[in-house]
Specification:
24% helix; 107 residues; alpha+beta
């Protein structure tokens, strides 16, 4: 595997994608749509990498909604597997916890 997010983008492009149950719950809570997240994935910026996450390597990325609002998305690949890409969660970041660019946590 190469860079984890590059691998994830390739899987998404190939349609090898699933959304976790937690992901669906979080999407619904923040009024976000899977289609919008998938369509905006290619423009995402990696914020944090979690290569040793127990369920498999994953990344936190900053994406934009179709309206241009910032959202954080955690994408991963199941441990010991090469597919599918998993949309683990997505949410609207709290401005009180993140710097104005939503790429760094406030100290």
């Amino acid at each position: 595997m190469g860079e984890i997010f590059e691998d994830i983008l390739q899987l998404v492009q190939e349609g090898q994608l699933r959304v976790s149950d937690h992901g669906y719950d979080e999407l619904a809570a923040d009024n976000l749509y899977v289609r919008d997240i998938v369509e905006s994935a290619a423009g995402a910026v990696v914020v944090e990498r979690y290569p040793d996450y127990p369920k498999g390597p994953c990344v936190l990325v900053l994406q934009k909604t179709v309206q241009g609002d910032p959202i954080h998305v955690v994408w991963g690949i199941p441990k010991g597997q090469s597919s599918p890409a998993v949309l683990m969660t997505a949410y609207r970041p709290d401005p009180g916890r993140w710097e104005a660019d939503f790429q760094r946590r406030k100290q």
